[in-house]
Amino acid sequence: MSLTKDASEDQEDIKSLTMNTSLVDSSIYRPLVHLTPPVGWMNDPNGLFYDSYESTYHVYYQYNPNDTIWGLPLYWGHATSDDLLTWDHHAPAIGPENDDEGIYSGSIVIDYNNTSGFFDDSTRPEQRIVAIYTNNLPDVETQDIAYSTDGGYTFEKYENNPVIDVNSTQFRDPKVIWYEETEQWVMTVAKSQEYKIQIYTSDNLKDWSLASNFSTKGYVGYQYECPGLFEATIENPKSGDPEKKWVMVLAINPGSPLGGSINEYFVGDFNGTEFIPDDDATRFMDTGKDFYAFQAFFNAPENRSIGVAWASNWQYSNQVPDPDGYRSSMSSIREYTLRYVSTNPESEQLILCQKPFFVNETDLKVVEEYKVSNSSLTVDHTFGSSFANSNTTGLLDFNMTFTVNGTTDVTQKDSVTFELRIKSNQSDEAIALGYDYNNEQFYINRATESYFQRTNQFFQERWSTYVQPLTITESGDKQYQLYGLVDNNILELYFNNGAFTSTNTFFLEKGKPSNVDIVASSSKEAYTVDQLTVRRLTV
């Protein structure tokens, strides 16, 4: 589509294309419950909020409707959901003025008390929506605002934009929250290549004052992006702990230890103007390859801490297969809490835990189910689901608790592993999650027959992750718990009730994920599957 026509004609073309749901419904390999763009390109989630009047979740995102690669002009795409499983697509919400500009990442707040002065009594307080975003121009990045009087579907840009301009080309991704104690708006925004997260305050969303800098903390990589502050409940507080603590998140790209993009976080205290971390340790939100630009929802129900990330990696996001005319998806919506967790036998740390968040878990409909319990796993005793390969949705989940038997006679030179293999319904292809007895580590193998996967030098096939056991007995038995969600081309792993996670995309050359097998490499009884449930799902 050309963007050289009259601007109104361009907008109508883009609106028509974006809202053509038949493009989504007819896709073959598209994830079923993870948000994807109807056509074109998607990256960072933006402007997440919950409309309590309509009981609707809104997700905006970086959107190029004209191609399946990143490029200008860049819009805010828009989707809504009542259940966070099925999505309605809407026309792009905010667009640039010119083809060489972009509406970059930002956030949305609900201005209940009309501090901005944008609203009157004709707009319900619950729907007084203000977007705060980066306006990317050829020679500068500024922070601008726009407001909506129809619940977030269309926006009017503030006539006196920008609201913050520091004459920088690397100044972006504002995330705004309301801080009740001081009755002020608080913005975190990245001075990306100075390794600064700047904290601004405002009474009215228009006039902002710099309050402090959070800088050069943790793992720095090439640059900071997509910062944010939110509160998370402590699941198992110790004496003297508050009910909640503050979490500062930020994204790094490039420079992840695995290569490319990653999110890290800090736990600490916030007083309205300054964030003070409990320590300077680096903690990653997710140890997979495909989790970036996390953002939390504004006004989540029951004050829960829920959010979502872009499920891709800048190392290869522009090259992944696009047979259905789109690229990229979001992670599942997740709920976040803090929990004291043993990270080794002598240490316990307060870490950010996560689990998939569904409005109603029963909205995930079980088509078929397979169960195993109290079974030894050896090379001669394997098991797995045998769901029908026809009409598979590509949506599966599995919940597994297993024990590594500490008294098994295993030498250092022995290869004693087990693998959970997720199989295609049309070929011998499978991706695998494995565990090695001697190394006491999990590994992921997403090698397939896909030409992209075999030829892209950054789309690693294999890597490992360490997870401290959930329990260790006196005899040395180690128990782990694992939940996995498979959705066509994305695998989300949640270890030990979400204490550790790994999010990864994969691309089968043929077919869709349809079954799960568990196999072992040794005749030694090193593993016991305490409980395994595999479910074939739909919505």
Automatic annotation (TrEMBL):
<comment type="similarity">
    <text>Belongs to the glycosyl hydrolase 32 family.</text>
</comment>
<protein>
    <submittedName>
        <fullName>Beta-D-fructofuranoside fructohydrolase</fullName>
    </submittedName>
</protein>
<feature type="domain" description="Glycosyl hydrolase family 32 N-terminal">
    <location>
        <begin position="34"/>
        <end position="343"/>
    </location>
</feature>
<feature type="domain" description="Glycosyl hydrolase family 32 C-terminal">
    <location>
        <begin position="378"/>
        <end position="534"/>
    </location>
</feature>
<dbReference type="InterPro" id="IPR013320">
    <property type="entry name" value="ConA-like_dom_sf"/>
</dbReference>
<dbReference type="GO" id="GO:0005987">
    <property type="term" value="P:sucrose catabolic process"/>
</dbReference>
<dbReference type="InterPro" id="IPR013148">
    <property type="entry name" value="Glyco_hydro_32_N"/>
</dbReference>
<dbReference type="GO" id="GO:0000324">
    <property type="term" value="C:fungal-type vacuole"/>
</dbReference>
<dbReference type="Pfam" id="PF00251">
    <property type="entry name" value="Glyco_hydro_32N"/>
</dbReference>
<dbReference type="GO" id="GO:0004575">
    <property type="term" value="F:sucrose alpha-glucosidase activity"/>
</dbReference>
<keyword id="KW-0732">Signal</keyword>
<keyword id="KW-0326">Glycosidase</keyword>
<dbReference type="Pfam" id="PF08244">
    <property type="entry name" value="Glyco_hydro_32C"/>
</dbReference>
<dbReference type="GO" id="GO:0005576">
    <property type="term" value="C:extracellular region"/>
</dbReference>
<dbReference type="InterPro" id="IPR001362">
    <property type="entry name" value="Glyco_hydro_32"/>
</dbReference>
<keyword id="KW-0378">Hydrolase</keyword>
<dbReference type="InterPro" id="IPR023296">
    <property type="entry name" value="Glyco_hydro_beta-prop_sf"/>
</dbReference>
<keyword id="KW-0325">Glycoprotein</keyword>
<dbReference type="InterPro" id="IPR018053">
    <property type="entry name" value="Glyco_hydro_32_AS"/>
</dbReference>
<dbReference type="InterPro" id="IPR013189">
    <property type="entry name" value="Glyco_hydro_32_C"/>
</dbReference>
